[in-house]
């Protein structure tokens, strides 16, 4: 494909992502209005109880009025309201908050804590600050069981995920149970499996990568060697120690190369494992 055609496709994709982001924002606003309509039995007038209650909560953001708790951020302390916290998460139920005068959020980055607090009151969050921000906010929201905010972050990340970031997002989604993002990233990983390298998986835990290899390849040991993940190679050998054979180790996979012959360093690591466990080695059969 000509370079100009690739550039055009990249520009088109960028435009599509921009439009998708706009649609997500619009969808979030429609969802908010629908929730309001359903709760107020179709009455969207500003005089309805539910509408007035939501507007009142929004106006309490950052104000001392009715405040009965303080939220301590890295750069400042903000007035909070226990009934708002209670309504947002089971972690902040009456029993959990009754003796508290302050919630310490100083472990959160300042922009994350501020965005999280604003969402609690207004249901509004700015996710245009980049993937790293959305990813960190999603993790923080999950830690407080703020499922609504997790969902919004998921949708933003789904809109922006690419081949180089899908593994990173998959790991984060698996960690917090963000099923929609995890499923989307899993599809991307499957579609681009042969394009991904060991560098893409470098941050992924050995247990998670081993589970992925077993689900996406017929030869997980070959996959672990191709990605240069000695820790995953050992997991595979330990799990299959009773069935390890020359045939298993030197079977040709769909990509062609022989398993342990792909990497001499891992071959010797394999040999060391079997020597340590007083089992016969196979590396000298190469």
In short:
The chain is mostly helical.
Task: Please tag this protein with its features.
mainly alpha, Potassium Channel Kv1.1, Chain A, three-stranded mixed beta sheet, 14 helices, 4% strand, globular, disordered C terminus
Explain this structure:
- This protein has helices at residues 3-39, 49-59, 82-88, 94-97, 110-122, 131-143, 147-160, 166-176, 179-191, 206-216, 220-226, 230-239, 246-250, 264-276, and strands spanning 69-72, 77-80, 102-104.
- With 286 residues, the protein is mostly helical.
- Among the domains are: 128-195, 2-Layer Sandwich (Potassium Channel Kv1.1, Chain A), CATH 3.30.710.10; 207-285, no CATH class.
- Strand 1 (69-72) and strand 2 (77-80) form a beta hairpin.
- The longest helix has 37 residues, at 3-39.
- It is globular.
- Mean pLDDT is 82; it is low at 279-286.
In round numbers, the mean pLDDT is: 82
What is the helix content?
A: 55-70%
Counted by DSSP, the helix tally is: 14
Instruction: Kindly estimate the percentage of residues that lie in beta strands according to DSSP.
Output: under 5%
Query: Largest sheet at a glance?
Result: 3 strands, mixed
Q: What is the H/E string? A: HHEEHHEHHHHHHHHHH
Instruction: Please identify the oligomeric state.
Output: single chain
How far the N terminus sits from the C terminus, by CA atoms, comes to: 40 Å
Strand sequence of the main sheet, in spatial order? 2-1-3
The low-pLDDT segments are: 279-286
Q: Could you give the count of β-strands?
A: 3
User: Cα-atom Rg, whole angstroms?
Assistant: 25 Å
State the secondary-structure class: mainly alpha
Q: What coarse outline follows from CA principal-axis ratios?
A: globular
